[in-house]
Amino acid sequence: MLDDKLFLKLVLDTMPEQVVVINKEGEMVFINKGWQNFGEENDCSCGAWEKENYLFTCKKAADNGDEIGERALKGINAVINAEQEAFYLEYPCHSDDEKRWFMMRVVPFKYSTDFYYVITHQNITERKLAEEEVQKLANIDGLTDIFNRGYFDSFLEQEWNRCKRLNMPLSLALIDLDDFKLLNDTYGHQQGDECLKQVAAVLKQYTKRPSDICARFGGEEFVLVYGNTNSEQATIIINAIVEQLKQLNICNERSLPSKTLTVSVGLASVIPCNSYKIQNMVKEADDLLYKAKTAGKNLVCAADLTVVD
Ligand SMILES: Nc1nc2c(ncn2[C@@H]2O[C@H](COP(=O)(O)OP(=O)(O)OP(=O)(O)O)[C@@H](O)[C@H]2O)c(=O)[nH]1
C-alpha cells in the first residue's frame, strides 16, 4: 500500500474538480492543482491560499448581499456542526464571455482526532446548458420562435414584482393583426404563417433589454412587456413598431383599413402597487385593444393606469 503524501497529492492534482480541504475553523489546509489553476485563470489570489479562511470568505460575500455566499456558508456550517452528512450547491459563476455553472460538494472526514471537510467544485456547465435548451424549447412558440403564452405569464409576474419593489412603471401592449382571417382566406394559411413570423421578427428587434419581452399571446395576437417604461416611453416604442410593421408591406387586399397589413394595439402602463392587480393590467390592455378595433382598427389606444394618491 502506497503511503506517500506526494503520491496522494499528485493523484488529487489529476482531478478536473477544484478541491480544497478546510478544518473546523475554516482554515485551508490543502488545495489541489485544479483549485490553483482556477484561481489563477480567474484572477483570484491563490498564491497565499494557506492564509485564507474559507468561512471568512463566504461570510464576507454573504455580508455583501451575495445569496450564493450565504447559502454556501449555511451549508458548510451545517456539515461542520454535524447537522447534515453532506452539502451540495449548484451555482452559476459566469465569466464575461462564457456561461458556467458549478456544483459545490462538502463532505467531512476524520483524521486522527480532528475533523476536516473536503469541498469540491465541479464544472456542470454542459448539463446546465442542456437543461437551459430544454427549458427554452418549452417556452418558445414553435411557429414564430418568440416566447409563448406560458412564459409570458411567468415573466410578467416576475417583472411586475420587480417594478413594484423598485416603484418603477411597467407597460404592456397587446398587438392584434387586423383582418387576419381575410389574409388567410385570400392568400392561404401558409402565407398567414409567414406573416406571423415576419411580425414576430420585428417585435423581437424591439425587446432587447432583460426587462422586455415579446410573446405570442394566441393566434394572431402578440404581447409586449416593457419593465421600467412609462406610458410616454412605451407609446414611442409602439408607434415605431406599428410603423415598421407597415413597412413590411404584407398584402391584405380585402382588409378595410389598408390593402397591406395593419395592426391594432391596446397599451396599458402602470406603476405596480398593492391596490392594483396584475390581471387588471392585462384586462385593461385587452379593453383598449377592443376599443382600437371598434374604432376602425389600425389604431393604438393607450392609457396610463398609475394610481395617483
Ligand atoms: N395562418 C395562421 N392563421 C392563424 C393562426 N392562428 C390563428 N389564425 C387565424 O387567425 C384568424 C383570426 O381571425 P379573427 O379572430 O376573426 O380576427 P381577424 O380576422 O384578424 O379580425 P379582427 O381581429 O377583427 O381584425 C383566424 O382565421 C385563425 O384561423 C396561425 O398560427 N396561422
From TrEMBL:
Keywords: Nucleotidyltransferase, Transferase
Catalytic activity: 2 GTP = 3',3'-c-di-GMP + 2 diphosphate
InterPro entries to which the protein is assigned, alphabetical: Diguanylate_Cyclase (IPR050469), GGDEF_dom (IPR000160), Nucleotide_cyclase (IPR029787), PAS-assoc_C (IPR000700), PAS-like_dom_sf (IPR035965), Rev_trsase/Diguanyl_cyclase (IPR043128)
MF-aspect GO terms: diguanylate cyclase activity
Pfam families found in the cross-reference section: GGDEF
EC number(s) recorded for this UniProt protein: 2.7.7.65
Gene3D superfamilies reported for this sequence: 3.30.70.270, PAS domain (3.30.450.20)
Residue ranges constituting the GGDEF domain according to the UniProt record: 168-305
UniProt domain PAC: residue ranges: 82-136
The keyword Transferase appears for this protein: yes
PROSITE patterns for this protein: GGDEF (PS50887), PAC (PS50113)
Cross-referenced PANTHER family: DIGUANYLATE CYCLASE DGCM-RELATED, REGULATORY COMPONENTS OF SENSORY TRANSDUCTION SYSTEM
Protein name: diguanylate cyclase
Species this chain originates from: Pseudoalteromonas marina
Source taxonomy: Bacteria, Pseudomonadati, Pseudomonadota, Gammaproteobacteria, Alteromonadales
